[in-house]
């Protein structure tokens, strides 16, 4: 199976509320590919604040055959995953002595052709007290997907890319995984354009803000406050500067 590791470089529907950034388009392309090939897997890994979860949530809202499970730290073992899945399908509690049978039951409940998204999937890598990490939960999900002919999307932070990269039998099965190591300036420009802003100075300042911990969330917040200040007229440099000052982001921008 051909694989394509796509790393978005810093240089380098529409459903209401979703800005179709370069990153969002890239993520949806990979999800669509596995949706068209039942039994396949992909990965979306990246820094916080780039819109991974929001993009996948919008996909689910537009595709009723898709479902999403949030993995919580400390609850990413096989039994925990089985309990999460069985609770969704009202199947009771998994029997730890019959996990193979439970896996088959869950596979049947999910059904062929569906898309299952595991968000915060980095927590499926479990620390082994004897040293290193245990990746059995990923293999358990992979086996279900291939047997049940449904597709899987693993979504998480950059540690997820490192985790899956260390499991060759899993890594080679991924279809066009997406890894985002920084927020493309084009994504910031797309958010600005959605507010009618195209001033290069404003986009540069917002791109600097996006590089900080808040990512696109800070950009969105700054643009919302700028729009409130501008009222019905177009957003100006002064509006953005005032918004950045108000939000405590002025030192991060360049206005």
Describe this structure in words.
With 255 residues, this protein is an alpha/beta fold. The protein folds into two domains: 6-180, Rossmann fold (3-Layer(aba) Sandwich); 185-246, no CATH class. The protein is 47% helix and 13% strand. It is built from eleven helices and eight strands. It has helices at 22-35, 52-62, 78-88, 99-110, 136-148, 158-165, 168-171, 185-194, 200-210, 216-230, 237-246; strands at residues 6-8, 41-46, 66-70, 115-119, 126-127, 133-134, 151-156, 178-180. Strands 1-8-2-7-4-3 form a six-stranded parallel β-sheet, with helices on both faces. It has a two-stranded antiparallel sheet with strand order 5-6. The protein is elongated and about 65 Å long.
Task: Summarize, please.
The protein is an alpha/beta fold. It is built from 11 helices and 8 strands. Helices cover about 45% and strands about 15% of the residues.
Quickly list its features:
single chain, Rossmann fold, 2 domains, two-stranded antiparallel ribbon, 8 strands, disordered N terminus
| Arithmetic mean pLDDT | 89
Helical run tally: 11
- CATH architecture designation of the largest domain: 3-Layer(aba) Sandwich
Strand runs, count: 8
Please provide the ordered H/E string of secondary-structure elements: EHEHEHHEEEHEHHEHHHH
Strand order of the largest sheet: 1-8-2-7-4-3
The CATH topology of the largest domain comes to Rossmann fold
Please tell me how large the radius of gyration is: 20 Å
Give the C-level CATH assignment of the largest domain: Alpha Beta
């Amino acid at each position: 199976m051909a694989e394509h590791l796509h790393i978005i470089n810093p240089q380098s529907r529409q459903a209401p509320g979703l800005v179709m950034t370069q990153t969002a388009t890239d993520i949806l392309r990979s999800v669509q590919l596995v949706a068209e090939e039942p039994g396949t897997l992909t990965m979306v890994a990246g820094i916080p604040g780039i819109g991974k979860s929001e993009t996948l949530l919008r996909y689910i809202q537009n595709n009723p055959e898709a479902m999403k499970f949030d993995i919580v730290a400390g609850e990413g073992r096989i039994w925990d995953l089985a309990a999460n899945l069985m609770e969704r399908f009202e199947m009771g509690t998994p029997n730890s002595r019959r996990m193979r049978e439970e896996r088959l039951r869950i596979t049947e409940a999910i059904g062929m052709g569906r898309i299952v998204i595991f968000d915060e999937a980095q927590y499926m890598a479990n620390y082994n007290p004897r040293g290193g990490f245990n990746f059995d939960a990923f293999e358990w999900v992979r086996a279900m997907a291939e047997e049940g002919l449904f597709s899987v999307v693993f979504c998480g932070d950059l540690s997820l890319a490192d985790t899956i990269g260390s499991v060759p039998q899993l890594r080679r099965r991924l279809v066009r995984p997406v890894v985002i190591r920084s927020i493309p300036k084009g994504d910031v420009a797309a958010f600005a354009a959605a507010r009618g802003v195209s001033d290069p100075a404003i986009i540069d300042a917002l791109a600097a803000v996006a590089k900080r911990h808040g990512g696109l969330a800070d950009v969105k917040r700054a643009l919302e406050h700028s729009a409130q200040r501008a009222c019905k007229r177009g957003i100006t440099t002064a509006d953005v500067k005032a918004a950045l000052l108000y939000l405590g982001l002025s030192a991060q921008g360049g206005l």
